[in-house]
Specification:
The chain contains six helices and seven strands, in the order E-H-E-H-E-H-E-H-E-H-E-H-E. The chain has 223 residues and is of the alpha/beta class. Strands 3-2-1-4-5-6-7 form a seven-stranded parallel beta sheet, with helices on both faces. Strand 4, helix 4 and strand 5 form a beta-alpha-beta unit. The termini are far apart. The model has no long low-confidence stretch (mean pLDDT 92).
Length: 223
């Protein structure tokens, strides 16, 4: 039987690229995202019967509960990839942007992880939290984004400590900048940034690992 993986934010960007790599490793993939139409397009583009999808907001607790309640088959991997970026000066910080960043980058990651463990925690499972190098160092014009990602990193480290030596393993992933639509409203030159397909390959290979090793952190930066 094929193993299965949930990929949040799987309809575009890095999430979509990770789904492609997982399919190449002979896994079944469940894509999640907010937009039903985009998920349908992603499934069609992936061109595989091993892809399904569910449309909901990862910060919506009741939607997450319903999603896991309706899964009637085992899932081995959870890839928390969904996230948004809001950039600007400290003086431009506002509550709406803070809420948007925290919902997507931190709250959704925490709720999905909790739901996954409640549903499948008695099995051998692996949680892959894809964050950013912004979770490791402070970056100019990215104060709010760094705050959300540092929160995700703290949660990830607590997961590792909580489940060390158990059937639940955790991988924290810290990729640098990638040439995706993520930056479309920021105006910066991303021509030298990494290709999401290259990053996704490294994430997938290291996440779907041999039982004889345990990789807990993966930092991916430009050469």
């Amino acid at each position: 039987m094929k193993k299965r993986a949930i990929v949040t934010g799987g309809n575009s960007g890095l999430g979509y690229a990770i789904a492609q790599e997982l399919l190449a490793l002979d896994l079944e993939v469940i894509l999640t995202g907010r937009d039903d139409e985009k998920l349908i397009q992603a499934k069609t583009s992936l061109g595989s019967d091993s892809v399904s999808y569910a449309a909901f907001n990862v910060a919506d607790e009741s939607a997450i509960d319903n999603f896991f309640k309706n899964l009637d088959y085992p899932v081995t991997y959870l890839f928390n990839v969904a996230g948004v970026g809001v950039f600007g000066s400290i003086e431009e910080i506002n509550r709406a942007d803070i809420d948007r960043l925290l919902e997507s980058n931190l709250i959704g990651l925490m709720l999905m992880t909790s739901g996954f463990i409640k549903k499948f925690g008695n099995e051998e499972i692996r949680i892959i939290n894809v964050m950013s190098t912004a979770a490791q160092v402070g970056k100019k014009s990215e104060a709010m984004y760094c705050a959300a990602k540092w929160g995700a990193r703290g949660f990830t480290e607590a997961l590792k400590t909580t489940y060390k030596g158990s059937n639940i393993s955790v991988l924290g992933v810290y990729p640098g900048g990638m040439d995706t639509a993520f930056w479309q409203n920021d105006g910066r030159d991303v021509s030298s940034f990494m290709k999401p397909s290259d990053v996704a390959q490294q994430i997938a290979v290291n996440a779907v690992h041999s039982k004889s090793i345990n990789i807990t952190d993966l930092v991916i930066e430009r050469a």
